[in-house]
Amino acid sequence: MSIPTSSDSAQPNAPPRQTGQPLSKVAQFADGVVLGIARHWLLLINAAVAVYLLLPLAAPVLVNAGYERPARVIYSLYSFACHQLPERSYFLFGEEPLYSLSALEANGLPPAQNLFERRTFTGNLTTGYKTALCQRDIAIYGSVLLGGLLFGLLRRRLRPPSVKVYILFLIPIALDGFTQLFGLRMSNWWLRTVTGALFGGASVWLAYPYLEEAMNGVIQVENARRSR
């Protein structure tokens, strides 16, 4: 009686192990999506920031044109991201582009309201209609969009700042915001604009070079895998 060897006990009908099998259609589609995002990430981010910035500007345009319902939807959506206080917002189609609290109370805002009540005031025929983002937020996202467009021109030469340099750009917005929050002083529209723009621009300067490096790594890995 012969003793079966390992070669005898192996299944003769087992298919040989294959390498380099083609990916399924779902996997190919997923790889294509990932590669497309890696190649066009800057365009996608700039487009998203542009939409996010333009919708708050569209709200007063819609109200002025008589389309109050879609404007209310925009105001409601952005109320989760911004305080929308009218004395810290821009106005369109009114006598002035911005108003102090006393000026607003003289032109239709009920007096002695708390901030939760004031934020619901969107404007009237005299004041015009406020944007759905405050002055500081418009400056932040406007500088992020502008910084993203500039990065498209400088991406091969721009290097990110150190953390210490980035913190220096955060100090103005922190000082302006917290001193106003605790009632130590009152900010104004141009301080909100300048500090917001510094913060947004510095954030692009810090983050986008690292994103570029990471996306280039994804492209290189995917191209190497496909070449194999």
How would you summarize what this structure contains?
24% of the residues are buried.
Reconstruct the topology from this structure:
Blueprint: H1 6-9, H2 25-64, H3 68-78, E1 89-92, H4 101-105, H5 115-118, E2 123-124, E3 128-134, H6 135-154, H7 163-181, H8 189-227
Antiparallel strand pairs: 1-3, 2-3
Helix pairs in contact: 2-3, 2-6, 2-8, 6-8, 7-8
Total count of helical runs of at least 4 residues: 8
Largest sheet: 3 strands, antiparallel
Q: What general form does the structure show?
A: elongated
> Helicity, in percent?
55-70%
What does this structure look like?
Mean pLDDT is 90; it is low at 6-11. The chain starts with 5 loop residues before the first helix and ends with a helix. The protein is built from eight helices and three strands; from the N terminus they run H-H-H-E-H-H-E-E-H-H-H. The chain has one domain (28-223). 24% of the residues are buried. The protein has a three-stranded antiparallel β-sheet. A hairpin with a 3-residue loop joins strand 2 (123-124) and strand 3. Helix 7 (163-181) packs antiparallel against helix 8. The protein has helices at residues 6-9, 25-64, 68-78, 101-105, 115-118, 135-154, 163-181, 189-227; strands at 89-92, 123-124, 128-134. The longest helix has 40 residues, at 25-64. The chain is mainly alpha-helical.
